[in-house]
What we know:
The structure is a single chain. The protein is an alpha+beta fold. The chain contains 18 helices and 44 strands. The chain has a six-stranded antiparallel sheet, with helices on one face. Strands 27-26-25-24-23-30 form a six-stranded parallel sheet. It has a four-stranded antiparallel sheet with strand order 1-12-5-8, with no helix packed on it. β15 (235-241) and β16 form a beta hairpin. The longest helix is centred in the last third of the chain and has 25 residues, at 574-598. It is globular. The structure holds beta-D-mannopyranose. Beta-D-mannopyranose binds at residues 181-183, 393-394, 431-432, 519, 609, 620.
Amino acid sequence: MTTSLSRVPLGSAAGSTWTVRxxxxxxxxxxxxxxxxxxxxxxxxxxxxxxLAAGLIDDPFDGANEHLLAWIGRTGWSYRTSFDWDPDxxxxxxxxxxxxxxxxxxxxxxxxxxxxCNQHRAYRFDVxxxxxxxxxxxxxxxxxxxxxxxxxxxxxxxxRRPGTNVHPYNAIRKMASNFGWDWxxxxxxxxxxxxxxxxxxxxxxxxxxxxxxxxxxxxxxHVDLAWSPTAELEQTVAxxxxxxxxxxxxxxxxxxxVLRNTVPNVDRWWPRGYGDQPLYDVEVALGGSxxxxxxxxxxxxxxxxxxxxxxxxxxxxxxVNGRKIYIRGANWIPDDAFVTRLDRKxxxxxxxxxxxxxMNMLRVWGGGIYESKDFYDICDELGVLVWQDFLFACAAYxxxxxxxxxxxxxxxxxxxxxxRHASLAIWNGNNENIWGYVEWSWQVPLAxxxxxxxxxxxLLPKIVAELDPRTPYxxxxxxxxxxxxxxxxxRFGTMHIWDVWNQVDxxxxxxxxxxxxxxxxxQGPPAWSTLTSVVHDEPLDPYGEQMLxxxxxxxxxxxxxxGLGDHLPRWxxxxxxxxxxxxxxxxxxxxxxxHFRGLFPLNTGSMVWQLNDNWPVISWAAVDxxxxxxxxxxxxxRVYADRLITVQPGPVGPVIALHNDSDELWSTRLTMxxxxxxxxxxxxxxxxxxxxxxxxxxxxxxxxxxxxxxEAGEYVEVLTTDGHSAYWYFAEDTTxxxxxxxxxxxxxxxxxxxxxxxxxxxxALVKDLALFPDRLDPAARVDSSLITLSAxxxxxxxxxxxxxxxxxxxxxxxxxxxxxxx
Length: 822
Ligand code: BMA
């Protein structure tokens, strides 16, 4: 029989009509009809978004709705569709589900096809004997996710294992943060969250395609094949890439074959900042007819991770094509609590948030998902390296069945699916679980039971070595790459710095000399318009009922307050609370990164926690749940720029530290001034400097500039001829003498074609000037923030997507430190 395959999508976009109804659980009385009257559903989709679209529930993100809708996660749900099918002569019919969330029973025409319990896997059911000519009835029933997690956890030997959530997310292979996290809503959902289709085929089928492109131009394509029961013809498998092709003939029953192409003079793929991102189309054709093909793109690159001990401990140093990469990155969480609402456009917008801030790596954190194809495609195209966690976070995991088999199957599928991506630079075993085991009092409750070590140190590295040998594996984050060294030891490998934020002032970042910081961060509220779109407490208060629904961190408000230290005065109203905490967040993280970059080359990078949010919330994110860039984002753009100049404390006084993370020499003249916070220039020095490509240097601040007799009234400004600046203060803002806004600056508004401009002219020191146009119109966006001006300087904010306001701009739209201290 000749090889041929047809795929009929069964999703809503392809015209299938789906419904959902409740089967068990605490459905509120006013919705009890959901047990008998099915409601329209969308596939791929989730039950929350279905109920929302049907007008049956209010927005789960609004007010205190999260708690009011908790019943959804304790309810069983049944999805149903019918579809027509006519025998087409092909031999095998299969129902293919790319993702079911999570505990599902799949029934076709009354016959149970199977039960699944892993959101992170695709499944394939042979329905050849079950399909009928004409109308077919497909039902996918989901057990309540919260109850299922509880049951699985209770059933495991010894009961519940340690974790960091009220729900035992570690007992079920479902996105951990879907059960709520310290930045995310508890909206445990169900649904057919990935495409579903009927595949009919004869002869042979491509079961898996894994093209691995190496930096020397070699493409090794691993092809797994499935054969229909009566297949007796040999088949050809052909791979084309660039101008090359490779072909193999395979006998019936052959399970896998490897084809090799060598692309002469290959154009290698580079992360952004190091070169271009050429991508090559790969086509895999099975059989002469070309009816069973695979297409995808690859990038030729070599990635290496250097962990070998050195005189300081051991580095965590990533190289691409032999060049060391200084990592300026961020941690990525699922970009919406309801991930099926995401699409290529939303992914691109959020990845551009990283790029526009100067980042070159994103870490897909282990409490989320293996991301969508769009995510990795965009990272390939734009040169953003991807660090991919396996999906284990902040908990102990059973290594026995039923979890073990699920973990292995899921990891094999994920590595197979993602290995071809040029951007994929690191596979990482888990988030904080090794640290958790040694330090978070897990061992007593575990009482000798497994906790996941065998996954991180044995199973997962073996799977990566087998299926994606071109990509480095790291056992965990943080990890010291030795069993006898504390996993969060700053001298070895990766570290997470969380005492800043949780316990100590952000100045403590300077106590660390970390080789690589894969997590650190500080909270701040989302944009005012984002916050007030969901928090309606009257009056607005950090401790308001709805506000606390949108502040998930343990003692979050306390930490926001304590975090002010003596950096900024304590607020006296909600507007000042909002501005001070956003500003303090930005300063804290920038302070850390300035210090880490000052440690280059001992330090090889940092990844801020976290780039994005999955709803409107007070969190560590740089960009809020409505896509508005918080002041932190603008601070990141400055400290993650190719060229960074900062003033840091040195052994004998302040030192100007310069890090040039670009391929060009940085030659500039430094103008160093000690100034009064009013208008006087008290000392000026100049020096010409050159910083090598991908190099760093430092200059001691001359004592005439560095020494002040009036610490509350003076500061240091360092300017480069190419527009970079750094400031050094002798006093914190709580004692610094800043003039009030009406004396310190004037601001003028001018309408433009796309919005308006606000030009600020400084008559004295103006610290951290920020414009919040969303206060006037939530759609408005501004191009800059946290601008410090000396007397005589000016700055123009450009606002887009808005109409120029009438009248002058003032607090709370235009803010600075000057208004906080006066
Ligand atoms: C880190 C992360 C997350 C968490 C964040 C903030 O540990 O891995 O678990 O959201 O801290 O607490």
